[in-house]
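Dear colleagues,

For the upcoming journal club I promised to circulate an example of a predicted protein-ligand complex. I picked one with inosinic acid because it came up in last month's discussion. The inputs are reproduced below in full, followed by the predicted structure.
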Amino acid sequence: MPALAPPRRPGETHSVPPAETAPQLLIATNNPGKVRELRRLLDGCGFDVLTPGDLSLALEVEETGTTYAENATLKARAFAAAAGILALADDSGIEVDALGGAPGVYSARYGGPGLDDAGRVQWLLHDLRGRPHPARGARYRAIVAVAEPAGGSGTVVTFEGVQEGYIACTPRGEGGFGYDPIFLVDPWRTQAELSPEEKDVLSHRGKAVRAARAYLRAQVR
Ligand code: IMP
């Protein structure tokens, strides 16, 4: 709340200005790893940042797109329409050179249904067995989409972030989620061995959200 100006004349009283409420922004994902990171990355963005859980919103959006941008837009639009507030979605994946850029947009479904994060990591290591260092080049890519609620302008804007690295031969580290235990950020450390703050500086998601924050700031004014 802004500081009260001193009374201008003796005997003059103040009227208390109305409390300022921040506009709301919904994180459009049910993935707990993404929720954790997006909450951190959106801290201080000028919005009151909410999760689907905060709104008791149970919504599964089928990812029918063939690009990150299509899927991020689908998710942001669906959550914005359901909640009636601005929504921010992330669609992301890992692209491995030796696999021609796969699994890419299908990273969450790599290896088929029934696998968890650890299972998908093992699947990728198996697909890369015998592949030497240069062929293990890889990158994470994230597209962040911000959608107006239905009844608003219907605008959706997207932002991209990319992080280059290599696929390790064995998983290491407890941080992050998904493929982080096998994503080498330098010759010594996997992404899962970084602190959350270090990951935010380097990650595809960190870069995409930092680009989105400039747009979000302009929406608050
Ligand atoms: P989607 O965006 O819901 O299609 O899921 C993206 C998938 O890519 C995740 O489920 C992970 O498997 C992988 N992924 C995306 N970002 C990261 C990350 O920061 N660390 C590890 N894996 C990630």
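Two points we might discuss: Residues 31, 63, 91-94, 107-108, 140, 176-180, 203, 205 surround inosinic acid (CB under 6 Å). The first strand starts at residue 24 and ends at 27.

See you all on Thursday,
B. R.
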